[in-house]
Write a structure and sequence with these properties.
By secondary structure, the chain is an alpha+beta fold. It has two domains: 265 residues, 2-Layer Sandwich (Cytochrome Bc1 Complex, Chain A, domain 1), CATH 3.30.830.10; 186 residues, Cytochrome Bc1 Complex, Chain A, domain 1 (2-Layer Sandwich), CATH 3.30.830.10. The chain is built from 18 helices and eleven strands. The strands form two sheets. It has a six-stranded mixed β-sheet with strand order 1-2-6-3-5-4, sandwiched between helices. β4 and β5 form a beta hairpin. α3 packs across α6, α12 packs across α18 and α14 packs across α18. The radius of gyration is 24 Å and the shape is globular.
């Protein structure tokens, strides 16, 4: 039988340049093999059994002197600029593939918010060799799982499959990078889906608009000022030509990182990746968004009414440095000491002792530009918002003068160590982490070294970052009040 090449015509989404990728029918085509293997519920359950969570490292994985597990990997760059990170782990007969694109809501422009997330939906609507909805069907019926996520700084897509389906996962990701089916029908369908998602998760749920209000109030620059879901007005104004331009600009191999973790041989995996990805043409580097923020010189406040909330909520945000900086790691530790668990300062004071709030959290965002340290409290309906806020500010001032005890720092360090062990338990979490660190910081080895940065934080560092960032002039406060009680509380 003849061996036809993948079509180089993508209609309005055509990639220029030679197309050398060959798809073999019927013997060597991964899609035909995958479709042939579908035998109903029995094969699906068998595959699911193979895809049970695997341990994160085998006995052959090197361990650092600190005694903590270490993830070994190799890096490659294809001729078209695709960054490839491969990490073998033969502990279980599964693997995970993650493609992380260097695009998020920060790359959107005014009037076109929500496009990065909308495109996450579009990526499952079919491509040159995969029909609409077939991506999920092929993965699920071969014992795997698939999904995608979008945030301000990146978009990623990932699958976990049995090891004997290595070619399938690689092919599926390459096919949609090369030849996504950006048609008017697919666009309209997902356009309406995202609008409904916005109504369900933001416009018609308790505190759904709170996070958006915090961003809009705290940030001055557009990059981080808007939410990933986008505004309904912008979603209504979205057009198919905008989607095609977005794909051409950002969904290119030189703007992506492929991370592969699990039961495979590096030589075999790299050959498959080159076979299916390397002929996809690179594109001009997309513009870098402006993420700078002017210094905040005074407290900002905003209050909103929420028809779905049953209790008031206070959100306090401070502008801080970007992720993976010494100050950011110190603020991570400080957030845990303030409100990280049942023994934390604010939980003991406001939840247990005074019974003013029902929940409290404190943590820094992780962004590639100016981030936020956020404190969020859901207040008991019969309590004063002003009193709760006063106790929070008093606790911050106390921490500036009285450092936490040694046992508190030790507890938080151990908690981070346990969390890392849990997060690296599966091949999927490791694949996502490698892609995350590569795209965010150009340093995938942070999967091994980030914990060391936490361990180096001192009590003096905690006091320094509290004094530097957690000050009134750098503070944004958003209060969310149940609509029926807006006139009597806050």
């Amino acid at each position: 039988m003849n061996q036809p090449s993948l079509p180089d015509s993508r209609g309005p989404n055509k990639r220029s340049g030679p197309v050398e990728l060959k798809v073999f029918y019927p013997q060597e085509n991964p899609l035909q093999r995958a479709r042939a293997r579908l035998s109903g519920l029995v094969s699906f359950l068998l595959g699911c059994a193979l895809a049970l969570p695997q341990i994160a490292w085998s006995s052959e994985t090197p361990v650092r002197q600190s005694g903590k597990p270490s993830v070994s990997f190799q890096e490659f760059t294809l001729k078209n600029g695709l960054r490839v990170i491969l990490s073998e782990d033969h502990a279980a007969p599964t693997y995970s593939i993650c493609v992380t694109y260097n695009v998020g809501s920060r790359d959107e422009r005014p009037g076109r918010t929500g496009f990065a997330h909308l495109f996450e939906h579009m990526m499952f609507q079919g491509s040159a060799n995969v029909g609409k909805g077939e991506h999920f069907i092929l993965v699920l019926n071969n014992g795997g799982s698939a999904n995608g996520t979008t945030n301000a700084d990146r978009t990623n897509y990932f699958e976990t499959l049995p090891a004997n389906q290595l070619e399938l996962g690689i092919f599926l990701e390459a096919d949609r990078m090369r030849a996504l089916d950006v048609t008017q029908a697919n666009f309209d369908n997902q356009h309406h889906t995202v609008q409904e998602e916005r109504r369900l998760n933001y416009d018609n749920r308790p505190y759904g608009r709170t996070a958006e209000t915090v961003l809009d109030t705290a940030y001055d620059n557009f990059a981080y000022k808007h939410s990933t879901i986008g505004s309904m007005e912008d979603l209504n104004a979205a057009r198919i030509d905008d989607a095609r331009a977005f794909f051409r600009t950002y969904y290119a191999p030189n703007n992506a990182t492929l991370s592969l973790v699990g039961d495979f041989q590096t030589e075999t995996a790299l050959a498959l990746i080159k076979r299916y990805f390397e002929s996809i043409p690179s594109q001009p580097s997309p513009p870098v968004p402006d993420m700078t923020e002017p210094e905040q010189t005074g407290e900002r406040r905003k209050s909103l009414e929420d028809a779905f909330a049953q209790a008031p909520r206070i959100d306090i945000a401070y502008k801080i440095k970007q992720g993976n900086t010494p100050d950011w790691y110190a603020l991570r530790m400080l957030g845990h000491i303030m409100a990280g668990d049942l023994s934390s300062h604010l939980y003991q004071k406001l939840v247990k002792e005074l019974e003013l709030v029902v929940s409290v959290s404190a943590a820094p965002d992780e962004r590639r530009g100016t981030s936020l340290f956020r404190i969020s409290l859901v207040v008991r309906p019969d309590k004063s918002l002003q009193e709760v806020e006063r106790f929070v500010h008093e606790e911050i001032e106390r921490l500036k003068k009285e450092p936490p005890a040694d046992w508190e720092l030790d507890k938080v360090r151990m908690k981070f160590r346990r969390q890392q062990a849990q997060e690296l338990y599966s091949s999927l979490s490791r694949a996502n982490a490698l892609g995350h660190y590569a795209v965010y910081y150009n340093d995938p080895d942070l999967i091994n070294t980030a914990l060391d940065k936490i361990a180096q934080v001192t009590k003096a560092d905690l006091q320094r970052v509290a004094d530097t960032y957690l000050r009134e002039s750098n503070r944004t406060v958003v209060t969310t009040v149940p609509k029926s009680k807006a006139a009597t509380k806050g």
